[in-house]
Amino acid sequence: MLRTHTCGELSLEDVNQSVVLCGWVQRVRDKGGMIWLDLRDRYGITQLLFEEGKTPAQVLETARSLGREFVVSAKGEVIERLSKNDKISTGAIEIRVSELNVLNPAKLPPFLIEDETDGGDDIRMKYRYLDLRRNIVRKNLQLRHQVARYTRAYLDDLDFIEVETPVLIKSTPEGARDFVVPSRMNPGQFYALPQSPQTFKQLLMVAGFDRYYQIVKCFRDEDLRADRQPEFTQIDCEMSFVTQEDVLSTFEGMIRNLFSKVKNIELPEVPRMTYADAMRQYGSDKPDIRFEMKFTELKGGDQDLTSGKGFGVFDDAELVIGICATDCASYTRKQIDELTDWLKRPQIGAKGLVYVRYNTDGSIKSSVDKFYSDEDIKKWVVALNAKPGDLILILSGQADKARKQLNELRLEMGTRLGLRNPEEYRALWVLDFPLLEFGETENRWFAMHHPFTSPKIEDIELLDHSLGMVRANAYDMVINGVEVGGGSVRIFERGLQQKMFEILGFSQEEAQEQFGFLMNAFEFGAPPHAGIAFGFDRLCSIFGGADSIRDFIAFPKNNSGRDVMIDSPSVISDAQLKELAINVV
Amino acid sequence: MLRTHTCGELSLEDVNQSVVLCGWVQRVRDKGGMIWLDLRDRYGITQLLFEEGKTPAQVLETARSLGREFVVSAKGEVIERLSKNDKISTGAIEIRVSELNVLNPAKLPPFLIEDETDGGDDIRMKYRYLDLRRNIVRKNLQLRHQVARYTRAYLDDLDFIEVETPVLIKSTPEGARDFVVPSRMNPGQFYALPQSPQTFKQLLMVAGFDRYYQIVKCFRDEDLRADRQPEFTQIDCEMSFVTQEDVLSTFEGMIRNLFSKVKNIELPEVPRMTYADAMRQYGSDKPDIRFEMKFTELKGGDQDLTSGKGFGVFDDAELVIGICATDCASYTRKQIDELTDWLKRPQIGAKGLVYVRYNTDGSIKSSVDKFYSDEDIKKWVVALNAKPGDLILILSGQADKARKQLNELRLEMGTRLGLRNPEEYRALWVLDFPLLEFGETENRWFAMHHPFTSPKIEDIELLDHSLGMVRANAYDMVINGVEVGGGSVRIFERGLQQKMFEILGFSQEEAQEQFGFLMNAFEFGAPPHAGIAFGFDRLCSIFGGADSIRDFIAFPKNNSGRDVMIDSPSVISDAQLKELAINVV
């Protein structure tokens, strides 16, 4: 080793020891007679001392020549520091340097290597290897390593086997768009990169592996939003001879174990909510339950507290729903107008916002005073369980749209009211998802989870006439309003699987060509099985209290799928194209 | 859970308990009044008992209807077995079944699900999910999981961080052929799949990660030999502020730890050999040192015990080398002819074989009696340290070829003499590889390891005039004649890296375009660093005492790079091609 210690481990106990440290120059303070240098490595910072008269002249000269981020090795004696720094673990000592070697000089970095940096996103991505030197970025990746370690430890303890499934697989038309890989040895044919190891893990169950997991890269060629990556990592799991309940308890255990080990937080038992309730009460299949503010239907179902008073907007609406924002009656007209404008942006698309101020003096002021009496509105107040000082916000229209819009408004109000503390964690199981959803554009049914998800046994007969009513044995885990995992009980019988493909519009030949290997496997003794997959990058970002998964990926790609550091993708040679028997159009 | 216990855990302690087991029907023995059924899962086999008169008639009927590999659930009482089977852990008990349910019937499998199967390679690959049910195949993958676990535990303890590097990277002309992935969002451009995370792990060192590892999939589009896979797994590692010695001791420690934990074998300290010695003494850079049989040069270097006696073959030869096969003087003429024919096959390409029998009575018989006196040949016997009863085998010709051929002969003799026991393990470090090798066809120099390997400091001046003489700080670990890992101290200075690319025939522009990101990174404070990568599939096959890596991969591809189970690669749709802006030629 070029060093005897790291920059994070020396303390008063080591005083008088001769040591060699290696690292990067974080900062040099030259006070004329004395020079202090902060030497940094992954483990910490240690202060080096150079003193006119005591330090060899040559060493002093070298110290004066150093710039930020030079890589040096320093030999010296550990001494007690006069003015101690209790913010760092090595703050009680410093090194009186007797030898100093520059291992590699450094050009001035294009941005500050500090927690608070002056570098913008683009420059930091281009020089990602410098960005990764910043403590906060490196700590995210250390956290990621810890989450992976504890995940493996938990699953290993439960007899799960990690099995690597192939990366070069087969393109299938169902699901998102595949990345493909031309095969040189099979001209005109292509591999696909897996969107998930779904069929392989099911085959491992057919093979009797009983409990499988894998922390595995997956790939989707989708148009990237801020928080999607073309390659991402999953904790992928499958179990045999289990019910949905077993999967829920096993993986609730995993998540609680991770919170305990990684965050030192004892997460309470994870509550459960049906998809139907989640949509009705929160307008979302991934509600943030750190705060209440549930939806109240003023018109909808059997209830109608709004029609027949001459307010056409509500009269024509399929649904009128509201939320109650505690202590917000003091919102000014300007604030409410601003909220209304926010709702009318095309991303949300609401037509307008109705409000009711329930003032602290008990009086009521609403934006629909001219249609509704105080008496009428009192009924709304009761329905919403509003207290004096509260503000009621109401949206209306086509039911699905109104719920989606109110979900956005609820989350926005939660944020504005400080009810979404990233250091507070509330997990939730959402259950009983619909099996199918109808694609209006394509005019056909799609699997909501994927085609291998089992309908609930009691709903199987609905497959013959009421596809939209069929519920699946499918479940999502949601933390703080973010879907972190999802899974289902799987179909394990050839007949039912074939029927699913029919419903999804596959001809028998297409189903056999694409998924014949799986349906055949079901005929050779497939056990009942179920599974789940967690978005690993996302889970890490939640543990890190951050919004973006990109900060938890060592070398992420930008929104155009480019790695700007290595400048990829790039053109390849004609010789390569020829070997692969493809042309660029 | 559909079961209360697995098929591998019940014992006499559980007698009288009511249990539910699930699993596969391994075997049914119907003796009329009694039926015994072996129920199998991953954890073991438990015997089920059905008895005419005692077992409900309906259950008996179901039991009689079962075929091999049916999936069933059985409820019953644990009872002590009359005739115990001490070969299995549950052999003292059986289950008196009261309820039996078929969870899924099974068609007759196309081959026997037993350790000794009647299925050939092709059928077992097509039905890999059935092959994986066989104990010996599943155990290989369980072993793989254990090797991964202990690898991670060892490295985690030493403060290594596992970091995931990207799979969608950039194609580079150096090294093997890349698999490429057309980018839809960047038409005409391609990602490449990594042949190794080499440049990324070096960037992590520049980023100050200090100690990195990753168990990671890598990809090479090469023509496949029996024991190559287009996708394979590496244990990839890198360290900063270290010398070659630190890497050797850290990873020798890892391998010894794995042998201890996985195989319960205490491997002795790993000996070291230079590349030059390995080639001279074994004709191979990966000698199998489970047995001696080192090469002796009869003509070569300063020695010449063969020239000037009228035997033109030896007179014209650059090198005459032999090995001594202990106790093989009794080899018949037929056996020696057969060895000669084996050597003359085109795979080896020897012109002929000279032998000397040193009989137990002290007499000598050789195939070149007519050119050499007993006196002459006695000198050979002394040089080879042969004892009465030994057989000397001699090859000659151009030095490199003769060594390669004798290496093959030595290994073959080792095998024939039973000196290569797969359960005996001998590891070896091979050091001081040449930095460069000359490609005759391409008429240029190639990096023997890769372009990032550092020359030995004392050999750097040779870069200006004697490229073939430059030794690298590169090392391989060899176990039982198989290269399981290799690495090097890296170049960490831009100037030297640039010089390497020049030597390899890159123009300055090409070097900058392909590897500019790395050379730029070296200018911002790159620490000295070194690393190693182990072939994980290969390592597992060695621990498993097997020759083929394919047995240690869950879903391997065949020699044409095809997955015959899922039938991949395959054609993709015109719509997909169009979106990707490519044509099939």
From TrEMBL, chains A, B:
Keywords: Aminoacyl-tRNA synthetase, ATP-binding, Cytoplasm, Ligase, Nucleotide-binding, Protein biosynthesis. Coiled coil: none annotated. Residues 198-201 are annotated as: Aspartate. CDD domains: AspRS_core (cd00777), EcAspRS_like_N (cd04317). One of its GO terms (molecular function) is aspartate-tRNA ligase activity. ATP binds at R220, D221, E222, Q229, E483, G535, F536, D537, R538. Residues 141-556 form the Aminoacyl-transfer RNA synthetases class-II family profile domain. L-aspartate binds at E174, R220, H449, R490. It is found in: Cytoplasm. It catalyses: tRNA(Asp) + L-aspartate + ATP = L-aspartyl-tRNA(Asp) + AMP + diphosphate. The keyword Signal does not apply. SUPFAM superfamilies: Class II aaRS and biotin synthetases, GAD domain-like, Nucleic acid-binding proteins. It is an enzyme of class 6 (ligase). Its EC number is 6.1.1.12. Homodimer. Belongs to the class-II aminoacyl-tRNA synthetase family. Type 1 subfamily. Catalyzes the attachment of L-aspartate to tRNA(Asp) in a two-step reaction: L-aspartate is first activated by ATP to form Asp-AMP and then transferred to the acceptor end of tRNA(Asp). This is Aspartate--tRNA ligase. It comes from Dyadobacter arcticus. The lineage of its organism: Bacteria, Pseudomonadati, Bacteroidota, Cytophagia, Cytophagales.
